[in-house]
Amino acid sequence: ISGEMNGEEFTEQFLLEVVDILFSYIKKTYDRKSKVLDFHHQHQLLEGLEGFSLELSDQPQPLEQILVDCRDTLKYGVKTGHPRYFNQLSSGLDIIGLAGEWLTATANTNMFTYEIAPVFIAMEDILLKKMHEITGWGETEADGVFSPGGTISNLYSVIVARYKRFPEIKTKGMTALPDITLFASEHSHYSVKKAAAVLGIGTDNVIAVKCDERGKMIPYELEANILKAKRQGRVPLYVCATAGTTVYGAFDPLANIADICKKYDLWMHVDAAWGGGLLMTRKHSFKLNGIERANSITWNPHKLMGVPLQCSAFLIHEKGLLQACNQLRAEYLFQPDKLYDVTYDTGDKTIQCGRHVDVFKLWLMWRAKGTRGFEILINKFLELAEYLYKELKARDNFELVFDGEPELTNVCFWYIPPSLRRIPRGPEQEKMLHQVAPKIKARMIEEGTTLVSYQPQGDKVNFFRMIFSNPATKKSDIDFLLEEIERLGMDL
Predict the structure, then answer these.
(1) Do residues 333 and 379 both lie within one domain?
(2) Which of 68, 167, 174, 488 has the greatest CB tally within 10 Å of its CB?
(3) CA–CA separation, 52 vs 45, rounded Å?
(4) Do 343 and 391 belong together in one domain?
(5) Among residues 31, 70, 94, 29, which one has the least CA distance to residue 305?
């Protein structure tokens, strides 16, 4: 950048060059010939790479260097929008969502009061109402808030459930309360335990309810656990049902769980962070039948709906409870004598003070796609999962972790190298099979051609978990992945 320009031209030139860097990165992201990542170990990054240093300097660096830094930061990161990136439940790069994120950063305001974020607050209100309607709460005055991710949304559900039963918690603290017990399936997200740890309930007081072989909570087991807790003198408070588990993509039987929660007067929360997107499709929404009976719901549009990170909604059926539970009426923010309707000041409903605008990119995407556009997208993901499932059944070197068509986009499988196929099933073979996925993944990271995650589950040794939430992915990318796993694992 020439030093002869005045400040305004200088800034404009700088921003145009940044936009060039972003465009070139976006093009590479969608280019199947480019790598998903160019992997370097921590020590390499810390020691510095070809003119890219992470060190902070006392003196300002020239803008040329800042542009190099921008380029290199993207270069050595992971292209999560790449058609062959399958590592996390959130993937893909939606261009409208990206534009929304840019506008949000430019506006750079805070969601706590209508005073400084009038348009964004109105959008949040409209989106929450739309989500209430889709979950089946259309007729009632429900409530909610966008939070920094599903873990925090799940945390809200426990805070509010506890406050509803024991409002004295807010002033007296945990010493005023009996032994509270929470229930979640053994396949539920670890954030329920995290919430118990954070809130002083304790992880020992989260009871893991047994699941069937597909990873769904067994209602009979839930009821037995509730009765056992009561016999021990504990107070059952809350059940977290999962709609779309992290590993298997399983849906707990929500209607049966709702019956049990009603019978024993427990708060029913549905963690639909992953599976909530299915509510957008007429073909698959039946998998969440019963969700309309929940007291609260977590739903992450940054997962199946492909909204850029982060975008998570916490929905609560009872209006006013979120406010009562969290409000502290800070006088410098929430003055009661403002010129507008102060019920639109959302800050006192939340556990945060400052809150990022997560809603605009979702609103903009909804405008661009319409409800039907999201439906088409999500149906496509489920078709891809079905295609992979059928491919795995047809190939000799692969084995499904459980048989049965995928309900969501999770497909779990083992790759069995030729050397292991000669060994009979048993502890010895299992021990060796456990090492296969990590070894292939290590090679995969070094090659950088694709990324997929693996894990063990219960007594099952390491297996690959494939998921689809990336709009750029095609059937040819699935074929590529399976061939790549074979290529990297053939000689193990």
Answers:
(1) no
(2) 488
(3) 8
(4) no
(5) 94
